[in-house]
Amino acid sequence: MAAVHCGEPMEPERELELMSDEEMEREAESFKEQGNAFYVKKDYGEALHCYTKAIDVCPKNASYYGNRAATLMMLTRYREALEDSQQAVRLDDTFMKGHLREGKCHLLLGNAMAASRCFQKVLELEPDNSQAQQELKNAEAILEYERLAEVGFEKRDFRMVVYCMDRALESASACHRFRVLKAECLALLGRYSEAQSVASDILRMDSTNGDALYVRGLCLYYEDCIDKAVQFFMQALRMAPDHEKARIACRNAKALKAKKEEGNKAFKEGNYEEAYELYSEALTIDPNNIKTNAKLYCNRATVGSKLKKLEQAIEDCTKAISLDETYIKAYLRRAQCYMDTQMYEEAVRDYEKVYQTEKTKEHKQLLKNAQLELKKSKRKDYYKVLGVDKNATEEEIKKAYRKRALMHHPDRHSGASAEVQKEEEKKFKEVGEAFTVLSDPKKKSRYDSGHDLDDDGMNMGDFDANNIFKAFFGGPGGFSFEASGPGNFFFQFG
Question: In this structure, are residues 95 and 88 in contact, taking their beta carbons and an 8 Å threshold?
Answer without folding.
Answer: yes
